[in-house]
Amino acid sequence: MATEHKPSITFHPEPRNLPGGEREYMMDVSTSDLEVNMGPQHPATHGVMKILIRTDGELVTAAQPHLGFLHRCAEKIGENVEWLQYLPYTDRYDYLASMNNNLGYSMAVEKLLDVEIPQRAVMLRMICVELNRIASALVAFGTYGLDLGAITPFLYAFREREWLLMIFEKICGARLTYSYLRIGGVFNDAPPGWLEEVSHFCDVFEEKWQEYYDLLMVNHIFVKRTADIGVITKEQALDFGLTGPMLRGSGVDFDLRRDVPYLRYKEAYDAGAWKVPVGSGEKGTVGDCWDRIFVRVQEMMESLSLVRWCLENIEEGPIIGDIAKTLKVPPGEAYVGIENPRGELGHYAVSDGGKVAVRCRVRGPSFCNLAILEDIMPGTLLGDAVAIIGSTDVVIGETDR
Amino acid sequence: MDFQGIHDHLRLINAPGLLRADEPRAANPEDKKDKGRGGDAYLVVEADALASFLETCRDDERLSFEILADLTAVDPGKDDEDFWMIVQLLSVTLRHRLAIKALVPKDPGQIPSSSAVYRAAQWHERECAEMFGIEFTGHPDPRNILLPDDWPGSPLRKDYEFPTEYRGISCE
Asked: What is the pLDDT, as a whole number, of residue A396?
């Protein structure tokens, strides 16, 4: 007499409908939960971060980021050094966009000082910040390809980034930690021929950008791995306080440079020099990984046209306002949020009138953007985990500060 | 909407816990000790009502603050009896900002958690809790976020003393 056969695999009764008319049958295989430490030494976490993932077979059931491996007490240091001395520390949060960090801190202190910035300094600031945004987006774009197994775009992206770093080196002497934007203006005027080289870079980069787009963004394998993966809805994005490309990737048309304007961004926008790219779900769903990386890639071109606008409008003149060597900041509290490549970088400075800050708070965009992983990772496949983590484009120097 | 408009509207709808507005002011020329105050204008809100105040700000159509941009605390001084809770709100549809301040007494240093209103507050509150020793009642995940779980003291308090030793590692 034959024994009754008991299947170890049961088919899910209802198939799931995929876009394009395909149907997916789910199988229930009895498996036990397994907790996997992804990191702290994992190439896809882009730094020293650990994500504790609970898996059921190939399915991620829970994810919990663990931070703090790179905590360097930036806020405590801010309460112990003088206002001007703190500037080099700002370079170290988001080390891929140091110019932007310098700008955020300088603007917060300038708000308390109520000092006027010379026009040439404003334009040099805008040029450097936008070039740095391109350099930062190149890393985001290159390493994201690398995460998904495409090595070539990474090498191309770093070729152009190298040129940008050389441009920065010529104006301030440093390749990564610039401290170029100072409280009151900038530290050094552009050396002879620098503006021409930036202009030349813009012309060359425009062609290269099209290459990148063709190479990665419309690549069939890349689209398959990113479209419809890690979808963040508009409501989720707002609830988690996402900003920057993460928010725009979810279809929210918001950019601090245009909507809470600073420097001369509003003027440039009104002159038609740049637009705000927003994710539209071109290859899948609005707010998927492809949309987020698409926004970053598009922003490179918008930054490029902003740089061109600045080159046209820059005038001769002084580069730094009247700032004392030992700076005493009048009492008050100021919060300044600026659009960093990764989102809103907020600096909240409190002064009691002394040489040292009472509180020097940094709101790092990566810190807030990372929290969304707890929400979007459960229910995805382990193979997509890297695609989702990479699409948040976090810099650990900033989450941990 | 500008700060004055937001303040007037919140008064009109009787927002819970709203105490007063604090705006930057020039120094009083007669009082030499008074240096005035620069920077941002903010609203002062009752600490216990902060969460419901934030809910009002989020749900009101004319304010619609969808994003909690930042939540942090300040220890203004050793002798001060209160911490300041600072919340920065941002509206992406109406493109305005609002700064909110709540005074939290250092003893007992408790405030209801706002993470049910804005999910973004959860990680910021974890950071505040470890850095200042503030307890957020009703917080769903009150673990340390940046510091090790057994780190002694609250580093951003003004009365914090640097440890000389941590797990056998000398910090001197």
From this structure: 87
Angle between helices A119-147 and A194-212 (to 10 degrees): 30
H helix runs in A271-370, sequence order: 289-313, 365-370
Domains observed in chain A: 9-66 (no CATH), 74-400 (1.10.645.10)
Residue B124 tokens read as 């910021």
Q: Out of A21-25, A144-148, A170-174, A264-268, pick the least confident.
A: A21-25
Kindly report, residue by residue over A207-259, the tens digit of the pLDDT.
Answer: 888 888 888 888 888 888 888 888 899 998 999 989 989 999 898 989 998 88
| Topology at the third CATH level for domain B3-170 | Beta Polymerase; domain 2 (3.30.460)
Pairwise CB contact (< 8 Å): A346 & B88: yes
Q: How many CB atoms lie within 10 A of CB A110?
A: 20
Residue B150 structure tokens: 């057994």
Higher pLDDT, A2 or A198: A198
Query: Which residue numbers of B have CB closer than 8 Å to A's CBs?
Result: 24, 35-40, 42, 66-70, 72, 74-77, 86, 88, 90, 92, 95, 97, 99, 118-120, 122-123, 131, 144-148, 155-156
Where in chain B are the domains?
Answer: 3-170
Question: What pLDDT is stored for residue B153 in this prediction?
Answer: 84
Low-confidence ranges of chain B (pLDDT < 50): none
Interface test with A, best of B119, B122, B161 (most A CBs within 10 A): B119
Q: Are A363 and A237 in contact (CB under 8 A)?
A: no
**Residue A59 in contact with residue A156, Cβ under 8 Å?**
no
pLDDT digits (tens, 9 = 90+) for B78-99: 888 889 999 999 999 888 889 9
Are A157 and A293 in contact by the 8 Å Cβ rule? The answer is no
A328 shares contact with chain B (CB less than 8 Å) = no
Q: How confident is the model at residue A324 (pLDDT cuts 50, 70, 90)?
A: confident
